[in-house]
Design a protein that fits this description.
This is UNC93-like protein MFSD11. InterPro entries: Ion_channel_UNC-93 (IPR010291), MFS_trans_sf (IPR036259), UNC-93-like_regulator (IPR051617). It holds the Pfam family UNC-93. This protein folds into two domains: 1-190, Growth Hormone, Chain: A; 228-443, MFS general substrate transporter like domains (Growth Hormone, Chain: A), CATH 1.20.1250.20. The protein has 16 helices and no strands. The chain has helices at residues 3-37, 48-62, 66-73, 75-91, 98-125, 132-144, 146-157, 166-186, 204-208, 215-233, 236-265, 275-298, 307-327, 350-378, 383-404, 410-441. The longest helix has 35 residues, at 3-37. It is globular, with a radius of gyration of 21 Å.
Length: 449
């Protein structure tokens, strides 16, 4: 197998593995608050929003050390161990206990930081400046296929149900745990990093992921990775991209946790309100897959760079926010177990709600594929620290958003995303224009990015 074939193989296996793991985890996140609401009249007194806030808070802090962990353990084993912790978190819902739920939230936060840092490194090492756009799109499309399969099951299994029984819950979460473990095992198929590097190719990814088994050398690489993360954090490009990344954290919270809860709380949707959560997740996934696939396939022929894709993303999201504001009751995110009978500015429409799910997924893929692409392009020699910073900012903003989702009405959550999204788009444009200028100065073709 040629070097290029190995790289493509690694990208596909990476995407398929993440598809399985996040079929389980994202479906879990989408239905967690609804399931917990049905448990809170028992001995269980957890909150899905609080759990996700803990996860993303720990996730953000752990990104400070995740490059060092990847440096010592290696990217492949880092992802495998992290996948096991994802499976354990999902398994907690089979027989929920408040202490186990919140403890697992802490551990999966640490695992997530290591998983995504290793993923960013694997994506970059298996790409170059001509293939990073394509590979980012292919990975994103495969990853977001996860939203389709799990939510399709939820839609059919929970159709017509207003209460989630113990048997329903156990069946779902046993299946999700097994699916997560399958994705974890598939990570073993990824070829070793040194096999995917061209002969004589040297960069700091090799320095971080070198072959030496010396404990002293590993510690030196870990310290070097930590210092590199701190140094990169204060560069102009990273600081500007952090605003864009912050927006992806806020909207991630909204579409992955809050919006499904809103749909499930609207009593005017009748007996379909719970199954609509699954249908919403499916259409978010359709938007994500469509965006990732199209932008990946078009990246080789995109002579205008990344900015038009990001512009499309913010326009699509603003349309979605406007429709959600008119369609969903203001108290939907914080409604009690009995739901809400309130009406916004129109009679709640199931069709509009599901269309907004599609728009949320499409807009999210616009931002994330282009962020992955520009980070891999700008920091091909510092991929692990760069992706750690990206996930640090994204996750801390997601943690903040999950925290205020316990208290803020829908209109205020939408307003926050509109403001941050506007400024995040501008800062992305600024970095992209500078990257294009640097590429032209090197005599490269801008359309190759």
């Amino acid at each position: 197998m040629s070097s290029e074939s190995k790289k493509i193989f690694n990208i596909i296996i990476l995407g398929v593995s993440f598809m399985f793991i996040f079929t389980a985890f994202q479906t879990c996140g989408n239905i967690a608050q609804t399931v917990i609401t049905n448990l809170n009249n028992t001995d269980f007194h957890g909150s899905g929003y609080t759990s996700m806030s803990i996860i993303y808070g720990v996730f953000s802090a752990s990104n400070l050390i995740s490059p060092s962990v990847v440096a010592i353990v290696g990217p492949q084993l880092s992802m495998v161990v992290s996948g096991i912790f994802y499976s354990l978190y999902i398994a907690v819902f089979i027989q929920p206990a408040t202490w186990a739920f919140y403890t697992a939230s802490v551990f999966i936060g640490i695992a997530a930081a290591v998983l995504w840092t290793a993923q960013g490194n694997c994506l970059t090492v298996n790409s170059d400046e001509n293939t990073i756009g394509r590979n980012s799109g292919v990975f994103w499309a495969l990853l977001q296929s996860s939203l389709f399969f799990g939510n399709l099951y939820i839609y059919f299994a929970w159709q017509g149900k207003t209460h989630i029984s113990e048997s329903d819950r156990r069946t779902v979460f046993i299946a999700l745990t097994v699916i997560s473990l399958v994705g974890t095992v598939l990570l073993f198929l990824i070829r070793k990093q040194e096999d995917t590097k061209a002969p004589g190719e040297e960069d700091s990814a090799n320095e971080i992921l070198g072959e030496s088994s010396s404990a002293q050398n590993k510690m030196m690489r870990a310290v070097a990775a930590f210092k590199k993360s701190i140094k990169l954090s204060f560069t102009k490009e990273i600081m500007l991209l952090s605003v864009t990344t912050a927006y992806t954290g806020l909207e991630l919270t909204f579409f992955s946790g809050v919006y499904g809860t809103c749909i499930g709380a609207v009593n005017r949707f009748g007996s379909e309100e719970k199954s609509l959560i699954g249908l919403s997740g499916i259409f978010i996934g359709v938007g994500e897959i469509l965006g990732g696939g199209v932008f990946g396939l078009l990246s080789k022929n995109n002579r205008f760079g990344r900015n038009p894709v990001v512009m499309l993303g913010i326009v699509v999201h603003f349309i979605a926010f406007y429709l959600i504001f008119f369609n969903m009751p203001n108290d939907a995110p914080i409604a009690p177990m009995k739901g809400t009978d309130d009406v916004a500015y129109m009679i709640p429409s199931k069709e509009v709600a599901i269309f907004c799910s599609f728009l949320l997924g499409l807009g999210d893929s616009c931002f994330n594929t282009q962020l992955l692409s520009i980070l891999g392009f700008l920091y091909s020699e510092d991929s692990a620290p760069a992706f750690a910073i990206f996930k640090f900012v994204q996750s801390i903003c997601a943690a903040i958003a999950f925290f205020y989702s316990n208290y803020f009405l829908l209109q205020w959550q939408l307003l926050i995303m509109v403001i941050v999204g506007f400024f995040g788009t501008i800062t992305f444009f600024t970095v992209e224009w500078e990257a294009a200028a640097a590429l032209v100065a090197r005599g490269s073709d801008y359309s190759s990015i």
